[in-house]
Amino acid sequence: MRKSVRIKISEYYLAKNGETIKSYGLGSCVGVAVWDPKKKIGALAHILLPASKNSAAAANSAKYAPGAVAVMMEELVEAGCEPRRLLAKMAGGANIFPRRFNSCAGEPGANLGRRNVLAARKALARKKIPLAAEEVGGETGRIIEFNPATGELRIYKSTGEVKII
Amino acid sequence: MRAKKGDLDRVQVDALQELCNIGMGRATTALAQMVGKTIFFNVPQVTKAGIKTIPGLIGRPEEIVVGIYLRFHGPIEGNILFIFPRESALLLRKIMTGNDSNELIFDEYQTSLLKELGNILAGSYLTVMENLLGMRLIQSAPWFAFDLTGAIIDPILIQLGKDTDQVVVIKAEFFVREDEALRGKFYLLPEPNSVALLLKALGIGA
Q1: Among A2, A80, A81, which residue's Cα sits nearest to residue A34?
Q2: Contact B150 A27 (CB under 8 A)
Q3: Class of domain A4-164
Q4: What does the domain layout of chain A look like in residue ranges?
Q5: How many domains is chain B built from?
């Protein structure tokens, strides 16, 4: 069986030896995968926030979208990947306290997920990494598993639905 | 015990634990009156931990639960979260509405009832805090979620994570002894800037 490595919030992992990378319980957080399809090496980050007030501290931190994309790219290049061959996929950025349950205004998280998604797209664009596919937004939490060997991002929604992008 | 810089010391942990004890006493009394059962609670736990370890403290991130979330404002600010495992949420619904189906669909009426339950529990707890700390606290409307534990905690961690990587979590579990299925967890996560003030109000320097 293929080995699976589990990452937590604000962590990332680079899989060189055919492991898959898994993250549990993405709500408003986004999971961003970056990989080199030829080398079959890739990384996955569980991003908490779009950006930081303290930009210096955030530059290399996978807690933030720009930092996560930057560190993953750096390590992938270090591992011998070609920057212009890199592709990305992402999932997450949901609103976990949806309006159907919460008719009162100002529910938490309504924009948090969206802001994370926009920040991740921007960070990828800045590094010129094409976004091959995404499964974002909505009102359900997700468990995701990325397989760098195939580029497959498997999404298990809390509704029981499974999607592969 | 090893005490890192910025960690809570024994006296601080004890004070926060005791505050939670009294708050939980009041909240579980309110719950007992609503469900007509005696509610017990475990000794509260006070932890200061990194953001990435918080979902693990709340429960299995992949477990689907009911979460009721409130914020409170005032001289000190923070987040209150109630987590009810699936079976407990169904049981609470049964007690409060008479609906004993096993269906995992919560309509507007049922979510309102569970939110109101969260409202009353948080209100009881915060009243104790107000009295003991001598300050006025305002609580938000309750929000309802039915999702993965790890996903429900996200908005709170995003809120807290803006300013810090280290979060104080005050946790207590409550349950009905004769009825194992009825149990829930209470979490209080103060804003990072409120921790020192909270300790000061308790008469302990940070």
Answers
A1: A81
A2: yes
A3: alpha beta
A4: 4-164
A5: 1
Tell me the residue length of chain B: 206
pLDDT per position as a tens digit, B10-32: 888 888 888 888 888 888 888 88
Asked if the structure places residue B176 within a domain, the reply is yes
Name residue, tokens 């580029």: A151
Q: How far is A46 from chain B (nearest CA, A)?
A: 10
Q: Does residue A81 have an active-site annotation?
A: no
Any bridge partners for residue A156, and if so which? Answer: A143, A162
If we measure between CA atoms, which residue out of A52, A53, A29 comes closest to residue A112? A29
To 5 degrees, how large is the angle CA A122–CA A128–CA A131?
65
Q: What is the three-state SS of A115-157? A: HHHHHHHHHHHHCCCCEEEEEECCCCCEEEEEECCCCEEEEEE
Among B54, B108, B151, the residue with its CB nearest the CB of A158 is B151
Q: What is the ipTM of this complex?
A: 0.86
Q: Which residues of B touch A64 (CB under 8 A)?
A: none
Rounded-to-integer distance, Cα B22 and Cα B17, Å: 9
Over the stretch B31-70, which tens digit does the pLDDT of each residue have? 888 888 888 888 888 998 888 899 888 888 888 899 999 9
The domain that holds B105 is classified in CATH as 3.40.1550.10
What are A141's two structure tokens?
A: 């939490």
CA angle B32, B35, B37 (to 5 degrees): 55
CA B130 to each of CA A69, B9, B46, B198, B202: distance values in angstroms, whole numbers, following the listed order: 44, 24, 20, 11, 11
Residues of B within 8 A of A103 (CB-CB) are 108
